[in-house]
Design goal:
The protein has helices at about 1-25, 55-65, 115-125, 140, 150-155, 185-195, 205-210, 270-280, 295, 330-335, 340-350, 375-390, 395-410, 430-445, 460-465, 510-520, 520-525, 525-545, and strands at about 35-40, 70-75, 80-85, 90-95, 100, 170-175, 175-180, 235-240, 245-250, 260-265, 285, 300-315, 350-355, 415-425, 450-455, 475, 550-560, 565, 580-585. The protein is α+β, with helices and mostly antiparallel strands. The longest helix is centred in the N-terminal third of the chain and has 23 residues, at about 1-25. This is ABC transporter substrate-binding protein.
Amino acid sequence: MKKRRLAALVLTTLFLMTTLVAMTAPAAAEGEGKVYRTYLTADCPILNGHDSVEISLQTTHNYCSSPLYRTYPTADGKGFEYIGDLADGLPVQIDDYNWQIKIREEACWHDGTPINADTIIYSWKMLLDPIMANQMADFVANNSVTIVNAVEYYMQGTSNTVAWEDVGIKKVDDYTIQITTVDANNQVDVCAQFTDRSTFPVYEPYYEAGMNEERTETTYGTTMDNWMGCGPYKLVTWEYDNIQVYEKNPDHWLADLFHYDRVEVRIIPEMNARVELWEQGLLDDLTPDSNTIETYIDDPRMVSYPSLSVFHIDINCKNPNNPISGSVAYRKALYHAIDREVIARDLFGYLKPSGVYVSEMAGIQSESHLTYRESEQGKAVEAMVESWGPYGYNPDLARDYLAQAFEECGLGEDDVVTVIFAIDESDTSWKATAEYLMEQFPVIFEGKLQLEIVTYAGMSATDFKATGDDKWDLSPNDWTRTASYTYPYTCFYYYLSTYGSHPNNFFVEEFEEQYALCETSEVRSDYTRMLEETKKLEEIYLENVIHIPVIQNVNYQLFSDRLDLAVETYIPVLGWGTMYGDIAEE
């Protein structure tokens, strides 16, 4: 039935979409070579990697800028390795806590301006600037390695208690920098620290030209004209909310590793439009959603792989209009009222229900390759959740906890609480979930808890929440941290009070103390101990319902026959390596 409906939709809108593509895509030059055609569901708000949490920036930066290190497929297509990009070779260990990174002398910006140690030092100093308070500062300060005094520097505000000279980032010579870490780390940890778009260099002349008088913000990267790249591709078109176009930079030092002559990245929020372009052969990849997965599940071009993402629901504990918003019992009531099996099966399609938060992929890059979920410790937490009900679902417990919350907060038998579920209106699966819960909550909670849906568009969930605590009670999210491939506990990093752009507003001292313990060198160097401490952390998380885990994401993806991938299977951190792919002769 779904296949017939989808086919009809494609046929009836084919002409419309053909016209749309002709209007929005830049004209292809004759003999332009190999063109890879992909999409983003939302555009980059800015190209300044220092001050935006939106993951869409990573695509533009990976192609059009250069990090110190890149992940690159191994020759057999079954793994990845770190290679130097701006860096000339891998980091060199001086002692347990000091590493030197040499910048390749041929590195330069797209306008030919040289890149050297001063470029990197300036870029990171601005990223960590305590007055600018950039949202992504922690990625260079405390990701897979922790740089001495970096967190203290950027978190100090105007106190001036930590000088830049105290930070473990130093220039050794014109083409060498040195970092000093809090803990002993290995070469892989150091490389992994410098792959995120926030750690890519910024072009000082434009960054400074865009700086306001108070030096609290810069307009760098708000347009193509005030941003500069240094990558294997050049950004030649940026029509906001429409399309980005990259053309190969033949002068890049790693140019031979990249095979597309041109990359077209359309911005396509709506799934139906993506399907239509895929069916017309105008996209080389497609990630189906719950409404389209059944159509393609048996398609030989379909591949699947597990994800670091556990889709969850953030809970606002500060809504002044919700009299029980600060109650932990209320949070527990919501946790036990979620039928995850229905949501995963019927509303998201072919995904896995989850009552726990640490993903199935966490720990896969550890020395033993034992994931936390497969370990004795991870399985024990799952068993605890199952003792409550299937993936934690238990309407009786939900009602008991709501009654407790009502009593704690002084509400009576006749009181009714309405919670606001805020969602991006283009997210069809979460919209369907909200509608499902809007029907279920009054039944489960016997009319004492109602759900209202509020939709928003054109902004991130983080930005919407910033409009006011009275605007939402529940909000879906899927934050992930790639460091958890190696260190499972780090998936909780974003929910600490110390993370400046934290998606939640509920913090537990015991949880933060346990996370700090996991961060110690004693725990990080002993994987068995790390599994044990991660178990305690996840138990504290569940006891307080920091937020509500709902679904373990499984990624399904279609690749066109004309696209030759550089890997044989999905590889954590690298993914499918599409940017290193090739276009088959047609």
